[in-house]
Amino acid sequence: MRRPKITIVGSGNVGATTAHWAAVKELGEILLVDVVEGMPQGKALDLMEAAPVAGFDCRLKGSNAWEETAGSAVVVITAGKARKPGMSRDDLAEINAAIIRDVAQQVARYSPEAIIIVVTNPLDVMTYLAYKASGFPPQRVMGMSGILDSTRLRTFIALELNISFEDVTALVLGGHGDEMLPLLRYTYAGGIPVTQLIPPERLQEIAHRTRYGGSEIVALLKTGSAYYAPGAAVAEMLEAVLRDKRRILPVAAYLNGEYGERDVYAGVPAIIGRNGVEEVLEIQLTDEELAALRSSIRSVREALAKIV
């Protein structure tokens, strides 16, 4: 059976780790693309040589040529500059905008039916640029944000309660930045609302750590940003698309009236399947939560206005 082609643009830590998770899940044939000669080829070969030991069965290849990406089912864009200590995600906007526009145009040229998943920061802004530059329907362009933010919240809740990570579900909405909205009312441990298990003041501390989870890792690494959890989050999106799982996942999706917002990308719950964003789900929010979500989206618009 012919397997779908997954192209990952950028073979740095995030791109290579995404390839690792996708290979372990046997989601398709994987192509790493990068402007640095030898890097994608070397990492693809190294990872493929792990297949006999790790027990996965898919082919990996590296390339510096766009022509090799032709016919991709999904293209993951991780290319761009990573944050350094003291930098916000928005500080990367002008640096990465030109890269994203060029990549999106190449994707449209060689894989006109592909679905694009954007990982490059500032994520919501870059996803919008990829949508515009590709000319694709908005449903076929989305960003990895809410899954990563939600899994950080899930991790911190599990650690707080000393329970299995598997038993925690959570939802984080809004822009992938410091104004993201951890929805504690929609966070559960074994089906029990965490608001019944953790005192309110402690929950707020966990929410704050979630908002700055990426900055915490950047400060610790000093020379890079997170890649294990982002790569795993992308792999979950890839699986939902390529296996048409119709998962409900928080992703950066195009809003066309949902939550009172239009012509912007932001983290919201959506059904993800073969066609990309099959449906944006509009959940009930309190007035305070809706105000916080709109404030977060306003920050996305402000960052976008500086480069569009």
Question: What's the short story on this structure?
Answer:
The protein is α/β, with parallel strands linked by helices. It has helices at 13-24, 39-48, 51-54, 93-110, 123-134, 146-161, 200-211, 213-221, 228-242, 287-305; strands at residues 5-9, 29-33, 60-63, 74-77, 115-118, 141-143, 168-169, 172-173, 181-182, 188-189, 192-193, 247-256, 262-273, 276-280. The strands form four sheets. It has a six-stranded parallel sheet with strand order 3-2-1-4-5-6, sandwiched between helices.
Describe this structure in words.
With 308 residues, the protein is an alpha/beta fold. It has helices at 13-24, 39-48, 51-54, 93-110, 123-134, 146-161, 200-211, 213-221, 228-242, 287-305, and strands at residues 5-9, 29-33, 60-63, 74-77, 115-118, 141-143, 168-169, 172-173, 181-182, 188-189, 192-193, 247-256, 262-273, 276-280. It has a six-stranded parallel beta sheet with strand order 3-2-1-4-5-6, sandwiched between helices. Helix 1 (13-24) packs across helix 9. The model has no long low-confidence stretch (mean pLDDT 94). Catalyzes the reversible oxidation of malate to oxaloacetate. InterPro entries: L-lactate/malate_DH, Lactate/malate_DH_C, Lactate/malate_DH_N, Lactate_DH/Glyco_Ohase_4_C, Malate_DH_type3, NAD(P)-bd_dom_sf. It is an enzyme of class 1 (oxidoreductase).
